[in-house]
Design goal:
Oligomer: single chain
Structural class: alpha/beta
Number of domains: 1
CATH class: Alpha Beta
Shape: globular
CATH superfamily: Glycoside hydrolase/deacetylase
Helix content: 25-40%
Number of helices: 9
Bound molecules: zinc ion
Length: 239
Protein backbone atom coordinates (compact mmCIF):
# COMPACT_ATOMS: atom_id res chain seq x y z
CA UNK A 1 0.00 0.00 0.00
CA UNK A 2 1.35 3.43 -0.91
CA UNK A 3 2.12 5.66 2.05
CA UNK A 4 1.71 9.41 1.67
CA UNK A 5 2.92 12.13 4.03
CA UNK A 6 1.58 15.61 3.50
CA UNK A 7 3.95 18.10 5.05
CA UNK A 8 3.55 21.82 5.67
CA UNK A 9 6.54 24.13 5.94
CA UNK A 10 5.16 26.50 8.59
CA UNK A 11 7.17 29.64 7.99
CA UNK A 12 7.10 33.29 6.88
CA UNK A 13 5.52 34.19 3.52
CA UNK A 14 7.35 33.00 0.43
CA UNK A 15 10.95 33.27 1.70
CA UNK A 16 13.26 34.87 0.78
CA UNK A 17 11.05 37.22 -1.28
CA UNK A 18 8.59 38.39 1.39
CA UNK A 19 9.84 36.82 4.68
CA UNK A 20 8.74 39.67 6.94
CA UNK A 21 5.02 38.93 6.69
CA UNK A 22 3.11 35.92 7.97
CA UNK A 23 -0.18 36.08 6.09
CA UNK A 24 0.11 32.35 5.46
CA UNK A 25 0.22 31.49 9.15
CA UNK A 26 -2.49 34.05 9.95
CA UNK A 27 -4.86 33.71 6.98
CA UNK A 28 -3.92 30.52 5.14
CA UNK A 29 -3.41 28.10 8.02
CA UNK A 30 -6.99 28.02 9.44
CA UNK A 31 -8.43 26.98 6.06
CA UNK A 32 -5.70 24.38 5.68
CA UNK A 33 -6.51 22.88 9.10
CA UNK A 34 -10.20 22.71 8.12
CA UNK A 35 -9.28 20.95 4.88
CA UNK A 36 -7.17 18.34 6.73
CA UNK A 37 -9.94 17.80 9.31
CA UNK A 38 -12.57 17.30 6.59
CA UNK A 39 -10.27 14.91 4.70
CA UNK A 40 -9.22 13.01 7.83
CA UNK A 41 -5.54 13.63 7.06
CA UNK A 42 -2.89 14.07 9.75
CA UNK A 43 -0.03 16.16 8.39
CA UNK A 44 3.46 17.12 9.56
CA UNK A 45 4.17 20.80 10.17
CA UNK A 46 7.86 21.72 9.82
CA UNK A 47 7.68 24.91 11.87
CA UNK A 48 10.27 27.65 12.34
CA UNK A 49 11.09 28.64 15.93
CA UNK A 50 10.18 32.18 14.94
CA UNK A 51 6.64 31.14 13.96
CA UNK A 52 6.29 29.14 17.20
CA UNK A 53 7.25 32.23 19.23
CA UNK A 54 5.11 34.71 17.26
CA UNK A 55 2.03 32.54 16.76
CA UNK A 56 1.66 30.14 19.69
CA UNK A 57 -2.10 29.80 19.11
CA UNK A 58 -1.55 28.68 15.50
CA UNK A 59 0.93 26.04 16.67
CA UNK A 60 -1.39 24.91 19.46
CA UNK A 61 -4.20 24.56 16.88
CA UNK A 62 -2.17 22.18 14.70
CA UNK A 63 -1.09 20.08 17.69
CA UNK A 64 -4.69 19.95 18.94
CA UNK A 65 -5.74 18.92 15.42
CA UNK A 66 -3.67 15.74 15.78
CA UNK A 67 -0.88 16.82 13.44
CA UNK A 68 2.83 16.28 13.99
CA UNK A 69 4.85 19.29 15.14
CA UNK A 70 8.30 19.21 13.56
CA UNK A 71 11.28 21.53 13.27
CA UNK A 72 12.22 23.84 10.34
CA UNK A 73 15.09 25.75 12.04
CA UNK A 74 14.78 29.06 13.82
CA UNK A 75 14.84 31.90 11.27
CA UNK A 76 14.40 30.21 7.87
CA UNK A 77 18.05 30.77 6.97
CA UNK A 78 19.71 28.35 4.55
CA UNK A 79 22.03 26.00 6.48
CA UNK A 80 24.59 25.95 3.68
CA UNK A 81 25.28 29.64 4.39
CA UNK A 82 26.04 29.02 8.11
CA UNK A 83 29.02 27.99 10.18
CA UNK A 84 28.63 25.13 12.69
CA UNK A 85 28.00 27.48 15.63
CA UNK A 86 25.04 29.14 13.90
CA UNK A 87 23.73 25.79 12.69
CA UNK A 88 23.84 24.37 16.21
CA UNK A 89 22.01 27.43 17.56
CA UNK A 90 19.30 27.20 14.84
CA UNK A 91 18.72 23.53 15.63
CA UNK A 92 18.95 23.61 19.43
CA UNK A 93 16.99 26.83 19.93
CA UNK A 94 14.08 25.84 17.67
CA UNK A 95 13.97 22.32 19.14
CA UNK A 96 13.86 23.70 22.70
CA UNK A 97 11.00 26.09 21.86
CA UNK A 98 8.94 23.36 20.20
CA UNK A 99 9.65 20.71 22.79
CA UNK A 100 8.07 23.02 25.35
CA UNK A 101 4.88 22.36 23.42
CA UNK A 102 5.14 18.65 22.56
CA UNK A 103 7.53 15.86 21.56
CA UNK A 104 9.42 16.76 18.33
CA UNK A 105 11.34 14.11 16.32
CA UNK A 106 11.40 15.30 12.71
CA UNK A 107 13.48 18.00 11.03
CA UNK A 108 13.56 19.69 7.64
CA UNK A 109 16.05 22.40 6.64
CA UNK A 110 14.77 25.56 4.89
CA UNK A 111 15.04 25.43 1.07
CA UNK A 112 15.76 21.67 1.45
CA UNK A 113 19.45 22.52 1.79
CA UNK A 114 21.27 20.77 4.63
CA UNK A 115 25.01 20.00 4.48
CA UNK A 116 25.87 16.44 5.56
CA UNK A 117 28.52 17.81 7.94
CA UNK A 118 25.67 19.09 10.18
CA UNK A 119 23.98 15.67 10.56
CA UNK A 120 25.77 15.07 13.92
CA UNK A 121 24.07 18.24 15.21
CA UNK A 122 20.68 16.67 14.51
CA UNK A 123 21.77 13.41 16.16
CA UNK A 124 23.00 15.29 19.23
CA UNK A 125 19.73 17.24 19.45
CA UNK A 126 17.75 13.99 19.56
CA UNK A 127 16.13 14.09 16.14
CA UNK A 128 15.17 10.74 14.57
CA UNK A 129 14.13 11.84 11.09
CA UNK A 130 15.40 14.29 8.50
CA UNK A 131 13.37 15.32 5.46
CA UNK A 132 15.80 17.91 4.07
CA UNK A 133 16.58 15.99 0.90
CA UNK A 134 14.57 16.03 -2.31
CA UNK A 135 14.29 13.29 -4.91
CA UNK A 136 14.05 15.94 -7.63
CA UNK A 137 17.45 17.42 -6.72
CA UNK A 138 20.69 16.01 -8.02
CA UNK A 139 22.36 16.27 -4.57
CA UNK A 140 20.08 13.46 -3.28
CA UNK A 141 21.83 10.95 -5.56
CA UNK A 142 25.34 11.68 -4.28
CA UNK A 143 26.93 9.47 -1.61
CA UNK A 144 25.99 10.49 1.94
CA UNK A 145 27.57 9.52 5.26
CA UNK A 146 26.05 6.96 7.62
CA UNK A 147 23.84 8.46 10.29
CA UNK A 148 21.45 7.26 12.98
CA UNK A 149 18.90 9.68 11.49
CA UNK A 150 16.30 8.19 9.15
CA UNK A 151 16.35 10.31 5.99
CA UNK A 152 13.12 10.47 4.01
CA UNK A 153 13.29 12.88 1.04
CA UNK A 154 10.55 15.06 -0.37
CA UNK A 155 9.16 13.50 -3.55
CA UNK A 156 8.09 16.57 -5.49
CA UNK A 157 8.31 20.34 -5.26
CA UNK A 158 5.27 22.13 -3.85
CA UNK A 159 4.18 24.23 -6.82
CA UNK A 160 3.46 21.06 -8.83
CA UNK A 161 0.39 20.47 -6.65
CA UNK A 162 -1.09 23.71 -8.03
CA UNK A 163 -0.78 22.67 -11.66
CA UNK A 164 -3.96 21.81 -13.57
CA UNK A 165 -5.15 18.27 -12.89
CA UNK A 166 -4.42 17.00 -16.39
CA UNK A 167 -0.70 17.63 -16.03
CA UNK A 168 -0.46 17.04 -12.29
CA UNK A 169 -2.26 13.78 -11.64
CA UNK A 170 -0.28 11.45 -13.86
CA UNK A 171 2.92 12.90 -12.46
CA UNK A 172 1.80 12.40 -8.85
CA UNK A 173 0.56 8.84 -9.34
CA UNK A 174 3.96 7.87 -10.75
CA UNK A 175 5.72 8.81 -7.47
CA UNK A 176 7.10 5.84 -5.55
CA UNK A 177 6.44 4.92 -1.92
CA UNK A 178 6.79 6.69 0.45
CA UNK A 179 5.37 9.81 -1.15
CA UNK A 180 6.31 13.01 0.69
CA UNK A 181 4.51 16.13 -0.53
CA UNK A 182 4.90 19.61 0.85
CA UNK A 183 2.92 22.82 0.89
CA UNK A 184 3.28 26.22 2.58
CA UNK A 185 0.53 28.18 4.36
CA UNK A 186 1.18 31.22 2.13
CA UNK A 187 0.12 29.20 -0.93
CA UNK A 188 -3.41 29.33 0.48
CA UNK A 189 -3.46 33.14 0.50
CA UNK A 190 -4.14 34.90 -2.80
CA UNK A 191 -0.68 36.13 -3.84
CA UNK A 192 -1.44 36.24 -7.56
CA UNK A 193 -1.11 40.06 -7.66
CA UNK A 194 2.15 40.19 -5.63
CA UNK A 195 5.49 40.88 -7.28
CA UNK A 196 6.90 37.37 -6.80
CA UNK A 197 8.49 34.64 -8.81
CA UNK A 198 5.80 33.00 -10.91
CA UNK A 199 6.01 29.61 -9.15
CA UNK A 200 5.40 31.36 -5.79
CA UNK A 201 2.26 33.19 -6.88
CA UNK A 202 0.46 31.27 -9.65
CA UNK A 203 -2.89 29.69 -8.64
CA UNK A 204 -2.45 30.62 -4.95
CA UNK A 205 -5.40 31.14 -2.60
CA UNK A 206 -8.72 29.31 -3.04
CA UNK A 207 -7.50 27.47 -6.15
CA UNK A 208 -4.56 26.03 -4.19
CA UNK A 209 -6.91 24.73 -1.48
CA UNK A 210 -9.07 23.06 -4.12
CA UNK A 211 -5.97 21.53 -5.71
CA UNK A 212 -4.77 20.07 -2.40
CA UNK A 213 -8.25 18.67 -1.73
CA UNK A 214 -8.23 17.01 -5.16
CA UNK A 215 -4.70 15.64 -4.66
CA UNK A 216 -5.73 14.00 -1.38
CA UNK A 217 -8.75 12.47 -3.13
CA UNK A 218 -6.56 11.26 -5.99
CA UNK A 219 -4.26 9.34 -3.65
CA UNK A 220 -7.18 8.08 -1.55
CA UNK A 221 -8.86 6.64 -4.65
CA UNK A 222 -5.52 5.04 -5.50
CA UNK A 223 -5.68 3.22 -2.13
CA UNK A 224 -3.00 5.26 -0.33
CA UNK A 225 -2.79 5.77 3.43
CA UNK A 226 -1.86 9.15 4.92
CA UNK A 227 0.64 9.24 7.76
CA UNK A 228 2.53 11.97 9.59
CA UNK A 229 6.27 11.64 9.03
CA UNK A 230 7.06 10.26 12.50
CA UNK A 231 4.75 7.30 11.73
CA UNK A 232 6.26 6.95 8.28
CA UNK A 233 9.63 6.63 9.99
CA UNK A 234 8.32 3.86 12.27
CA UNK A 235 6.79 1.98 9.34
CA UNK A 236 10.02 2.38 7.33
CA UNK A 237 12.05 0.88 10.17
CA UNK A 238 9.82 -2.16 10.53
CA UNK A 239 9.42 -2.64 6.74
ZN1 LIG B 1 10.74 26.56 4.31
Amino acid sequence: MKRVSITVDFEPDCPPYLSSTFRGVQEGAPALLDLFADAGVRATYFTTGEVALKFPAAVRALVDGGHELACHGMTHTAFDTMDATSARWEIEESAAIMRNITNVMSFRAPYLRFPDEFLPLLEAAGFGLDSSQAKYKRSYYRAHPDTSITRIPASMTSSVLRLPRLIRDRWLLALSDPVVLFVHPWEFVDLTKEKLRLDCRFRTGRVALDCLHDVIELFRQDGAVFLPMCELMESSRTA
